[in-house]
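Write out a record, fold above all:
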Amino acid sequence: MEPRLDRAVSNQLKDILLRDAQREVPVVQSVSLFFWENMQRWVEQVTYATAPFTIALSGPSGCVKSFIRETMVSELNLVSTVSAFTQDNYYRDFEADFPHLPLDRFYDEIDFDDPAHIRFRHLGRDMAQLRNQPLGSSMKIPRLRFGTPTLKPAIIERDLELRVTPFIITEGIHAFYDPAILPHYDLKIYVDVDEHVRRARWLERNRLENRGVTDNMWNTTVKCLNTHILPTRPVADLVINSNVPMEPLRSFFQEVIASMTSFSGLHRFQAPIASLNPQP
């Protein structure tokens, strides 16, 4: 007999959503009709170890997808093992493809947020391989070497080892763009944010990581959001409002994961294994 979503767990999730809805500024904007079905899939796949449960995060640059990913990795590692990767690793190799474009023009002319620069076919092959390989195995994926004001971005093929674990979390601004990749995700989370909040975060991150902050770079993120990213929001199972402070955001995901891991079948994966979270 297949396990059903435990009533106590279901009630806990409903209570979390209800308490959140009563906040002055809720974390959750919307929940799709498929949310509960996907929570059931979480229980079944993890209990029977049939395949990794894959969580995908999407949203514009500067919406704190990485913060949410790191929060989920930290919480899931308390009861299971988890691997995470950014889909930035599937960008084209700008250094190889634009060898003759001078660096002083490169960041003013290239639209980094254009989905045409993402190698979706390669990403789709790797996602399919991740879901078909046995748990505990591993595979190699590419790594993006981020650009700097003195260096163009480049791709290093087969540079990161990714373990196939009960949970896999991936994030990217175009994670929901290619319909062919959507079936590889078990839970889709879109991270929404107001533009003035996003711009402040984007500037802080790019300055901290020395990525560059030209007007063209910011303007392309705005164009990309309106043209390519916002239209994918309806496919999400859960839409998150990241205008809230980081602590309520962290607390929400901690509560959701704690509720799901209260299902007894998850305890078979308890082990003090470190997170596998390759970063470019």
Notes: The first helix runs from residue 7 to 21. The beta strands are 28-31, 53-58, 82-86, 138-145, 154-163, 167-171, 187-192, 238-241.
